[in-house]
């Protein structure tokens, strides 16, 4: 069992926790790892709660740059609220990275080259509402009020991003669980992600969103009339990641676009990220396959996170190696050329002496 003391309360990674305990965990993680972890506040919910992420960055090294504008970044978020299980994977992955980068040379290398941004809970209002009582347990949306004349609250944030918004697999009924909002990016939570990621989209390499349930690894796009240019690569990497997942506990994940393996829908953050040019965009639909649905028993959190971690790690490692193997060779060549020039200058100088 993985626990640590958080504000004098044991935090168990394999139990469900209310939002205040998650916030306390983030604060404690930053205190425990001040050399690599900071908390970044980058938005507010409709009810004026802060949206925060953990920024995991290896600050003691000069990081090579893929592009002149900034570091290469891996972004991950838990977006929905119908299951408390979604945020657990974000938290466990963060902890796993922090526990292994000092002993695993591969993880250390990835930490040297990339930053990791992890938002355990994007929909803070909806998550807190889902803890209110059993009648709200499976709440999916945020808590913004509906349009004029509507008595229902909430927009499905994963239908609210500006990616073929409102065209398929959504509802304009404000009482529906798949209500896409009054306009694209109408919700403050979607606005926070759009600004934070979109304002420096050229820096981002991976965009991973965590959902449940169905045991799926989804690639863009959710609209059947559109195909991402790197579809074949995303599928190849996704299938390999699914193989890594299966090796852990034998759990089978199906890989494909939403229309092919689930259902068509538009306005997802994953589709939006791919349209912004972020090359590796995936959605994890965690356990299970329908037996327990959104109410996954706590005794399945640990194996669910263990297997999903291996899948995510494969995707991140692939993206890293593809990006930085060429970059390292280029840097090495440039360094060698510079040293050779210096050597020749030094030799010529002494010859003239």
UniProtKB/TrEMBL annotation:
InterPro entries: CARBOXYPEPT_ZN_2 (IPR057247), Peptidase_M14 (IPR000834). Keywords: Carboxypeptidase, Hydrolase, Metal-binding, Metalloprotease, Protease, Signal, Zinc. GO terms for molecular function: metallocarboxypeptidase activity; zinc ion binding. This is Carboxypeptidase O-like. Pfam families: Peptidase_M14. The active site is at 285 (proton donor/acceptor). One of its GO terms (cellular component) is extracellular space. Residues 15-319 form the Peptidase M14 domain. SMART domains: Zn_pept. Belongs to the peptidase M14 family. Its cofactor is Zn(2+). GO terms for biological process: proteolysis. The keyword Lipid biosynthesis does not apply. It comes from Mastacembelus armatus. The keyword Glycoprotein does not apply.
């Amino acid at each position: 069992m993985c626990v640590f003391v958080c504000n004098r309360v044991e935090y168990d990674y394999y139990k469900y926790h209310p939002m205040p305990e998650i916030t306390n965990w983030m604060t404690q993680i930053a205190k425990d790892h001040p050399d690599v972890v900071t908390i970044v506040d980058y938005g507010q919910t409709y009810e004026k709660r802060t949206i925060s992420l953990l920024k995991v960055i290896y600050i003691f090294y000069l990081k090579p740059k893929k592009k002149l504008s900034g570091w290469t970044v891996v972004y991950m978020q838990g977006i929905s609220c119908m299951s408390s299980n979604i945020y657990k994977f974000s938290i466990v992955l963060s902890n796993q990275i922090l526990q292994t980068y000092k002993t695993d040379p591969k993880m250390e290398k990835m930490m040297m080259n990339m930053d990791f941004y992890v938002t355990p809970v994007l929909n803070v209002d909806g998550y807190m509402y889902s803890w209110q009582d059993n009648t709200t347990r499976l709440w999916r949306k945020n808590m913004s009020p509906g349009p004029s004349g509507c008595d229902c609250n909430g927009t499905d944030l994963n239908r609210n991003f500006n990616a073929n918004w409102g065209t398929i697999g959504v509802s304009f009924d404000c009482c529906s669980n798949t209500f896409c909002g009054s306009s694209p990016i109408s919700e403050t939570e979607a606005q926070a992600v759009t600004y934070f990621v979109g304002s420096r989209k050229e820096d981002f390499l991976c965009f991973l969103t965590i959902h449940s349930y169905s045991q799926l690894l989804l690639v863009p796009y959710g609209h059947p009339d559109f195909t991402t240019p790197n579809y074949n690569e995303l599928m190849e990497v996704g299938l390999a990641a699914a193989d890594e997942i299966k090796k852990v506990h034998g759990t089978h994940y199906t890989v494909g676009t939403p229309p092919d393996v689930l259902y068509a829908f538009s306005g997802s953050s994953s589709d939006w990220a791919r349209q912004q040019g972020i090359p590796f965009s995936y959605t994890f639909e965690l356990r299970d396959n329908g037996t327990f649905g959104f109410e996954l028993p706590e005794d399945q959190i640990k194996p669910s996170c263990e297997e999903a971690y291996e899948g995510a790690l494969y995707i991140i490692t692939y993206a890293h190696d593809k990006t930085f193997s060429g970059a390292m060779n280029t840097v090495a060549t440039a360094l060698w050329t510079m040293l050779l020039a210096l050597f020749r200058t030094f030799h010529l100088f002494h010859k003239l002496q």
